[in-house]
Amino acid sequence: MEAPHGHSEAALIAWLQECHQDARARLEVSRELSIAGLKSLQLINGGAIIALFALLGTDSEFAKRISDAEIYIAFAGFAVGLIAGLAAFICSYLAQESFSGYEQDVANNSFEALGGLPFSAADEGQLKVGAYFGKAALLSAVAGLICFLIGAGSCLLAAIS
C-alpha cells in the first residue's frame, strides 16, 4: 500500500516515530529545565533569608544601621518568594495530574474501542484544568522571582544608605 506524498507506509511510520521520539526528548529537556528553575527559585529565596539572619546575628556596624522597615521588607519578600515557589511546584504537579488523567482516559477509551465496546470521548475539561494550573505555576514562579528582587532591593538600599 502506498502512503500519501509518494512515500511508503513504512517510511511514514518510521518518520512519525522519529518525530514522536524527538518531541518526547524535547519535553524531557523542558521538564528538567523547569525543575531546575523552580529549585533555583527556592534556593535563592531560602538562601537569602539565611544570609539575612546571619547578617543580623553579627554585631557589625552595617547590621546596626539597617532600619526595621528594610529588614521587614527583605524578609517578607524572601518569605513570600518561598511560598510562591512552593505554589509553583504544587500547581505544576496538579497540571501534570490533569494532563495525565486526560491521557489515561484516551488510552482506556481506545482500549475499550479495540475490544468492541463503544468509543467514548475523553473528558477535555481535564486539559483545561491542566492548562489553568500550568499558567498558575508560571505566574507563581514569576511572582517568586519578583519577591526575591524586592527583598534583594531592600537589602541593596540598606547597604547603600
Short note summarizing the structure:
85% of the residues lie in helices and 0% in strands. By secondary structure, it is mainly alpha-helical.
Q: How much β-strand is present in the residues? A: under 5%
Number of helices: 4
Main beta sheet strand tally, sense and closure: none
Give the radius of gyration.
25 Å
Helix content: over 70%
Order of helices and strands: HHHH
Number of domains: 1
How far is the N terminus from the C terminus?
79 Å
Number of strands: 0
Could you describe the 3D structure shown?
The chain has 161 residues and is an all-alpha fold. The protein has one domain (34-160). Helix content is 85%, strand content 0%. The chain contains four helices and no strands. Helix 1 packs antiparallel against helix 3 (68-114), helix 1 (9-57) packs parallel to helix 4 (125-160) and helix 3 packs antiparallel against helix 4 (125-160). The longest helix has 49 residues, at 9-57.
Per-chain topology:
Layout (H helix, E strand, L loop, with lengths): L8 H49 L3 H5 L2 H47 L10 H36 L1
Keywords:
single chain, 161 residues, mainly alpha
